[in-house]
Each structure stands twice: as structure tokens, then as C-alpha cells.
Amino acid sequence: MEERNIGYVPQNYGLFPNMSVRANIEFGIKVRGVPRQERERRVRELVRLLGLEGLLDRRSQELSAGQQQRVALARALAIRPKLLLLDEPLSNLDPKSVRQSISYLRGLVDELSIGSLVVSHEISSLLEVADAVFFMESGKLYSLGSAEEALRNPRYLSAARYLGFETFLKVLRIDGNEAIVEGLGSVDLSLLGNRPARLDSSLALYLALRPMGVVVEDAGVGLDAVRCHLSVEGTAQGSYMWIEGMWRVRVRLPDGAEVLAVASRRVKAREAVTLCIDTNKVALVAGERF
Amino acid sequence: MRRFTALVALFSIAGGLVLLFFSYPIAVLFLVGGRGLIEALKVPAFVLALLVTLITSTVAAAASVVFGVPLAYILARHSFRLKGVIEALVDVPIAIPHIIVGVMIVLAFASYYGLGPLLAAHGIKIVDTLIGAALAVTYVSATYTIRVVQSAVQMLDPELEVVAMSLGASRLRTFFSVVLPNIGRSVASGALTSWARAASEAGALFIVAYEVRFGHQLVYPAPVAIYEAYVGLGVISAAKFSAAMLVVVLGIFLAARLLLGGHR
């Protein structure tokens, strides 16, 4: 990493506890022998960019997590890196600091136009600043395209788990445009957003569903927004209020498969329900469920 | 807030007994030897003895830092084959009876075996010299610095070094700018422990440097001087020299600890 000119911000920020904020930011350019005047100019610029006014003489231990992260960012940016590498940048922050962090990140990307590589397990908040999404598993890196492409068509089951898909139904057979799917029966693949041809054929295929794409009929969540391409009967197993302010319902399909759906009201266990599946929110993925 | 339970009470009694066991003999020593303390410090031969001991233990502490810190860093940061053997070797000096350490030092550096003839050819004398005394007390005390520094490095987040190198710092620069300042307190505290251990060494010195050539005189290292007083003059006389040495050594030890900032 040292020779490749990569600015690195580790998960715990890695501020040098023996140095002031200013000394932290200046460390890299001092090591590289940047003259004092230029160093001060860069520090001033980074202080403005990252809102670090008044913190320069503090010690890292006195800073909040959000401030520490900005100091670490400033330190990494001071060397004018070709690439910025951030490891789990949101994992130590409270929700307010997450918003702040995202807005600083966006500002940096816009203003400095430095390519930034962000590694995270919790990517939902980061998708709004991402130009491209990659997925890494067992040492292999998969390119998933833009955030929109990744969300529409994650292609790999294990990638889909990170992108909001929570139900995976096994595809038993594909016949031209028709797939026979566990729990659903026959599904017209031409209705799906993605093209099955690009999938890894050595793996099993699954239909990946988002809870938002499966709506309990007559308890719809703005049903007009969710087109009912496919409907299926099932039995509710119970429901709980979820973070989007809607009810999540576990529904068992006649053949035993379980689906996560949403509803605008509590659905009692053992209640018979009709599910309305929006195939635009369904993706065909390859992988293994367990 | 911890509640004061029966367990805490029981442990406090057990712990109190240990503390009493530690402090009671010191109290008696000062009770018996305290009055002769000033008198002992006016005996020129004994002052020289203390000086010799302070010099050799300071050399030992310095050597522990210079040679021990790099080893501690490697042990803390790297794993390699036979690391277990090296880890054990670091502890060996504590396990060897110190009188045997003395015999080994003489055999290895001042006899017809080992490095003895080579050193003799260059006029380097080991037996009854400051060099020999320093070698002996370093052997029995360096382990403490290595262990304390090793655990301090293990506690230090390795990401700090990764970041420093990503910013362009060399490994050496990283060590001196990022690692050392953050373990400085532990280095000092380890050195202090080694120093105190070296100052208290008698066994190895009995063999290597019962007397030390210091300028034109022959001087007993302080622990040997106290032993001499005990054998020749009796326990009361030994007590006043002991009290005097304890005041000096403990005084330096406690002052240094205070400087390092209390409880660490």
C-alpha cells in the first residue's frame, strides 16, 4: 500500500494517539518532505473541507467518533492519493454521524474527484454515493455494476443478501421463458428485470424476493405502486413491525416454502392471505441458500 | 458500583495478609537498622559499593532496552517457526538459579572455554570487573523489559503502523514515530523493573564479581558488601547497610515510578 499512493482510513480510524490532530494530518506530507508552507496550505484546505475548525491542537482521544473519522480522512487525503480506501466507514457511528459522514464523503468525491473504495458489510447507506458496486466472497471479487444495476440484478445469492433480498425460492426447472419455482409454481421469466443468461450456470438458481416486492392483498401498502404480476395463496406465520413503519409478515406457501411479505396492518398467525408479487422487484440469482 | 460482598471481604483479608507479609519485614529492618542508616552512608567503601551497583544496574537497564525492545517488537508482531523456542529462551534466565548464571558467565567469557581466550587476547577482563558485573546482572534482568514491552506492543493497534506506512513512512520511521512514542511508558517501566532486579542481584555476582576493580580500588557490589557485613559483623551491622541500600534503591525506584505517572 505504501508504494501505491493509496489513502487508507481503517475501521477504527487509526489516529496516532501520541500526536495532535494537526500532527496526524501532517504526518504523511512531513514524511514525504513537503515544505512547511505547502503543508500548512493543505492542512487549511482539508480543515475547511472536513469541518475540522478548532480541532487542530486537540489529541485524538478527545474527539468524537465522527471527528476522528474526518481527521483520518484528512490525514489520508493530505498526501493527495490516487485512491482512497475506507474500511467499514460507518460501523462505529451513530445514525446522525452516519448522515454527516455520507455528506462529507459525497462532498469529497465531488470536490476532489479522488476514486474512493469503500469496504462495508452495511452498504445500504453507502449506495447513494456509490458509482459501482462490487461483491467479494471467498477471495473472489464480482462486479455488480452501478448501484441501480446491483439492486435490480445482484446475480449472486450471497450478494443479494446484502442488497435487501431476504427470500430465496429455488428454481426447480427452466423451460424457455417459463420457470418452475418452489412455492410459486410457474413463473414467466420475461417479466423479470434481469437476464438469466448472464448467471453462473454451475450454481443452483433461485428467485430472490424483497419483502417490499411481496404484498399481502387487502392489506396493501400503496398497492398501486406495486403491480400485482403474480399472486399466490399462503398462511401467515406471524407479523412484526419493521423499520420502514410497515408490518412484515412471514407467510408459508402450500408446499412449505416461506416468504417474507409486507402489510399495512398486523396479520395474525394462521390467517389465510393472498400475496401479490411485483416481478419487477424479483431477481434471478445463482448460488446456494445455506 | 461494586457491592461489598462476603467474597470481597474474604479476598481483602487474604490480600491484606500478603501486603502485611511484604511490608512487615521492611518495617522491622528500618526499626533495627534505621538509626545506623546515616552512619552507613558515611562509610566510603559502602558508598563506592552503592555506586558500583547503581552503575551496573543502569548499564543492565540500558542494555535491556537497546537489545530487548527490538526483540520484544519482533515477538509481538511476527510469528515464525520456532517462535515457541525463542519465547522459552527469553524466560530461561529467570528460571536458572543465579549462582549458576555466575558460573556460566565465568565459563563462557573468562575461562579456557568459549569466548574466554578471545576476550583475554584483547585484554578484556570479565572476572571482578564492572563489565563482568554488568554482564551478570543484565543476564538475570533483561527478561523483564522484553516481556513488558512485548505485551505493550501487542496492545498497540497494528493498524497504526499500516496507516503510517500507507502515508509513506518507512518501517524504521514508523517504529520511531508511531510505535515507540506509544509504548514509551512501558519501555520505561520495563527498564525500571530490570534496573531494580539488577540492583538486587547477589548470587551471580558472588561468582563473577565478588569484588570489582573500580579505579584503583577493589569494591564490593552493594549486595555483596551487605553479605560481608552479615558474615563478618553480624545481623545488626548488616541491617544498617541494608536499610541504607534500601533507601537509595527504593528511593530511586519510587521516584521513577512517580515520574512515570503512578499506577503503571
Supply the key terms:
heterodimer, A: about 290 residues, alpha+beta, Rossmann fold, 5-stranded antiparallel beta sheet, B: about 260 residues, mainly alpha, two-stranded antiparallel ribbon, 12 helices, 2 strands, globular
Descriptive account of the structure:
The complex is a heterodimer of chains A (290) and B (264). Chain A is an alpha+beta fold. Chain A has helices at 21-31, 36-50, 65-78, 95-112, 147-152, 157-162, and strands spanning 6-9, 83-87, 115-119, 134-137, 140-143, 167-175, 178-181, 185-188, 204-209, 214-216, 230-241, 247-252, 258-263, 272-277, 282-287. Chain A has two domains: 6-131, P-loop containing nucleotide triphosphate hydrolases (Rossmann fold, 3-Layer(aba) Sandwich), CATH 3.40.50; 152-290, Nucleic acid-binding proteins (OB fold (Dihydrolipoamide Acetyltransferase, E2P), Beta Barrel), CATH 2.40.50.140. In chain A, 24% of the residues lie in helices and 29% in strands. In chain A, the strands form four sheets. In chain A, strands 8-7-6-9-15 form a five-stranded antiparallel beta sheet. A five-stranded antiparallel beta sheet of chain A has the order 10-14-11-12-13, with no helix packed on it. In chain A, strands 1-2-3 form a three-stranded parallel beta sheet, with helices on one face. Chain A is elongated, with a radius of gyration of 24 Å. Chain B is 78% helix and 2% strand. In chain B, α3 packs parallel to α7, α3 (44-77) runs antiparallel to α9 and α4 (83-95) crosses α7. Chain B contains twelve helices and two strands, in the order ααααααααααββαα. Chain B starts with 5 loop residues before the first helix and ends with a helix. Chain B has a two-stranded antiparallel ribbon. Chain B is globular and about 65 Å long. At the A-B interface, β1, α1 and α3 of A face α8 and α9 of B.
